[in-house]
Amino acid sequence: MRYWLVMPAAGSGRRFGAASPKQYAELAGRTVIEWALAPFLADPCCAGIVVALAPQDDEWARIAARLARVAHEGPHDGPHGAPPPVPPPITAVPGGADRSRSVRAGLAALAARAAADDWVLVHDAARPCLESADLERLIAALAAHPLGGLLATRAADTLKRAGSGPGAQVGETVDRTLLWRALTPQMFRYEKLCAALDAAHAAQRSPTDEAQALEWQGEQPLLIEGAASNLKVTTAEDLVLAAAILRSRNQGRGAAMRIGSGFDVHAFGPGDHLMLGGVRIPHSRGVVAHSDGDVVLHALCDALLGAAGLGDIGQHFRDTDPRWRGADSRRFVATVLAMLRERGLEVANADVTVLAQSPKIAPHRDAMRQEIARALGVGEACVNVKATTTEGLGFLGRAEGIAAQAVVLLAESAPCVPRS
Question: Range of 24's domain?
Answer without folding.
Answer: 3-157+177-252
